[in-house]
Design a protein that fits this description.
two-stranded antiparallel ribbon; 487 residues; 69% helix; mainly alpha; single chain; elongated
Length: 487
Amino acid sequence: MIDSAAQTITKGKPVKIMSDENSAANGGGDKSRIDRHQAESCVPDADGARVAESELFESGFQNGVVADMLIQELEDVDCCGDAEESDSDAEKFHCPRCDRETADGSALCAECEAIVKKYPFSPNAIFLFIVALFISFIGLVAAAANYPIAANTAKGTLALKGGDLNKCYGFYDEAYSYAAALNKRYSDVLPMGFSLFSSGNKTLVYQFVALNKLNGPYSAGQYIEKYFGDKIPPKLVGIKREFDEISEAYSILSRGFDDYYTAIGDAEATYGGLMAVVDKIVASHDLPAYLITYYRFLAAVETDAGTDVAVELMDSVISEKPGAHWLYASDAIFLYKQSGDFVKALGICNEILKTDPTNTSAIAYSMSVLRMDGNFKGALSVYDKAMDITETTPEIERQRAIVLMLKGEYAEAETILIDNYDESTLTIQYAETLCACAVMTGNGKKFDEVRELLESYEISLSESILGLQSGTVTVEEIYLEGGGDSV
């Protein structure tokens, strides 16, 4: 059995070769044990043959091979001299700026420290600071330029959520117009098709959504087609699809009516004749049912069909398309007032105001319906409540003036009408109401002024107003009977 201690000779650990004297000093019995081990164990020689360790040692002592071989096979170890040299290097300090040695252990050498004190920032640091400052400045300028867009968009969204579609549309319109103006101003320095202020397109989409709720898909669809062409944003696809259906129906049905009037003449047109035109179109085209019924209603209104037929057809339109106020509201309210069905007329007004509480047309219609029903207090109450949430219009003021005239308060009514008189937005109804009030106050000068203005546009005063002037017609007959207006 090989002694485990003998295996350490060639395994990389330092070995002390002992002489015979040293071996004897350690005990004579050990020598024979070592000699026996040497005879039994072998190591490879240079040629790959195995020789006895004793022979290798004997020949090695003669030429120094053994010492060299042992040194090559031993692991590297640090000696005391290397440790001392390492400690000496560790005590040395170098300037991080120029890599020169600093004997005193300071962070920088004397020269570099002087330079840093005089020029605390490097050229690269100064350049980067200038770049960062420039980018920050550009960001502030862009933010300031975008503020009116963002502010109006936020106001428009808030108004839309609150149901104020008029204000909503106005805010979005301002945001889009401002963005479009800025993009146009910088179009020469921007890449083709690039928008620096792109939020304009987003507000435009919101604007058309609000316009659809305010005036319906036909009005909104025309703008969508104009601004977006074939690239319709997802939010507007449904509106555009409905617009296309309405446009096709309008075109086909209107062309059929025009051809009929051209062939027959306006005076000879009959309800039956126009209904035949509609029936022929329906047989060859797939059009929305509510639009077909609406054109049948128009045929009744434009001919001698009578109020009852018109009311029945209008009821059908509303039943087929309840929310299409953009299509039938004004016709239905006037028709129901004329037929004395104030409940239905007021019901339509209330439906509109639920969706859009600031709808000025619906407010004016409500006042007219309540006035014709004899509820003057209710009409003025609608006015007071409306003024808390929206701005007035000439038509709203006209309705208030009519109520005051029916109450006998002619002077106050005339003041209201004169204060809101604007030739640029003047309607025939407004002009005739002012003439009626001038008759009641005896203001002949104002009466002649308005009459001459209408005549300059080749418009004559209605028989109702001329009758009021001659004393054959009363204010009550004009504004409480029939359609509740002079024309």
